[in-house]
Amino acid sequence: MPIFRYFIFVGGALLALLFAANFVWPALPAPQAVASTGYDQPLIRIRSDRHLPDRVVLDTSQPTIAAPVVETAAVAPAQPPAQADVLADMSAKARVRETFAQLTPKAGAKPQVQAPAQPRRRVARTHPAPQRGQPMMLVAQQPHFGLFNTTW
């Protein structure tokens, strides 16, 4: 099978290059014992000017303080005046009519004349209905790819 031949040749070539590189380049000095803090090595201490906020301690052993119960006195509703207002008994439409009836025009004011109503405009439909006997034509559009709506 060709894939196994590929792995054998390429793997063998890489292994040969690894042995050649080990032979050509000098070896690194052997590592010494595990580095430990001693007199010959300086201690690295990191100190920061920023401090975390103080710890918040919540004491849950104490009982919670309940808000005192406030009693409110009920206020009696105000009594309506004994004399009933005439407008209070009327409906909203009747009150409006009564208000306009009492309205007096200003001196020297001209009565407003309404302009004659303009005839309604006829607007063509954006999608006209298909005529009878004529088949509807459907058009396919190619999708656009790339910049500036170009087709490739």
Structure write-up:
By secondary structure, this protein is mostly helical. The protein is built from three helices and no strands. It is flat and about 120 Å long. It starts with a helix and ends in a 50-residue tail after the last helix. The model has no long low-confidence stretch (mean pLDDT 76).
What is the chain-wise order of helices and strands? HHH
How many helical elements? 3
Main beta-sheet annotation: none
**What is the average per-residue confidence, as pLDDT, rounded to a whole number?**
76
The best one-word shape is flat
Query: Radius of gyration from the CA trace?
Result: 49 Å
Low-confidence stretches: none
Number of strands: 0
* Residues in helices, as a percent range: 25-40%
Percent of sequence in beta strands: under 5%
What structural class should be given to the helix and strand makeup?
Answer: mainly alpha
Distance between the termini: 40 Å
List the helices and strands and how they pair.
Blueprint: H1 2-24, H2 86-89, H3 92-102
Task: Write a brief structural summary.
With 152 residues, the protein is an all-alpha fold.
Keywords:
single chain, 152 residues, mainly alpha
